[in-house]
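Quick sanity check, Phosphoribosyl pyrophosphate synthetase-associated 1-like protein:
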Amino acid sequence: LQCPKIKTVDISLILSEAIRRIHNGESMAYLFRNITVDD
């Protein structure tokens, strides 16, 4: 079932970077400063 109002967004790169940063005790702020959404 497809709905034109729902868009699939790949978050795999952000998720992997978040896991790496948490594992290394690094700041997560970088992830929130560099968010872009392409239409």
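Posting the structure with no commentary besides this: The mean pLDDT is 85.
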